[in-house]
Design goal:
The structure is a single chain. It contains four helices and no strands. With 126 residues, it is mainly alpha-helical. It is elongated and about 60 Å long.
């Protein structure tokens, strides 16, 4: 547990936050053609920024909740802000980014509620 009483590792946070990031990567990937066709954004700009955000989401989803990877929660939180900022390129990402940020915070909150406090009878973290 960190100083904020947020679990940084364990099966529950790995599942909840990892799933949010995988689905977010899919939505970001689907926003690339929207940016090109509907918003008439430069192909390289839309693919570069959207692709980088999607790849980062996949990479972070693979390490969030793993032992000694507590930095992944901070990286995921920063990613949420960057996805909202991607709304400059694709305006719909303002709303979608806010929805995924809410899901991210909810995933951390639920994992904190599900994870039992450490004690002598608590099972070892997975």
């Amino acid at each position: 547990m960190s100083g904020l009483d947020i679990p940084v590792e364990g099966k529950s946070i790995r599942q909840l936050c990892g799933i949010v990031l995988v689905f977010e990567a899919i939505v970001i990937g689907l926003a690339i053609p929207v940016a090109i066709v509907l918003e008439h954004t430069n192909h390289g700009l839309a693919a570069g920024i959207g692709g980088a955000l999607a790849v980062c989401a996949i990479l972070i989803s693979g390490v969030v909740g793993r032992p000694r990877m507590g930095w992944a929660l901070l990286a995921g939180t920063i990613l949420q802000l960057l996805v909202i900022a991607y709304g400059v390129v694709v305006p719909a990402m303002y709303a979608l980014g806010a929805i995924f940020a809410a899901l991210w915070v909810t995933g951390i909150w639920l994992a904190r509620r599900v994870t039992p406090p450490p004690g002598p009878l608590s099972p070892a973290p997975s």
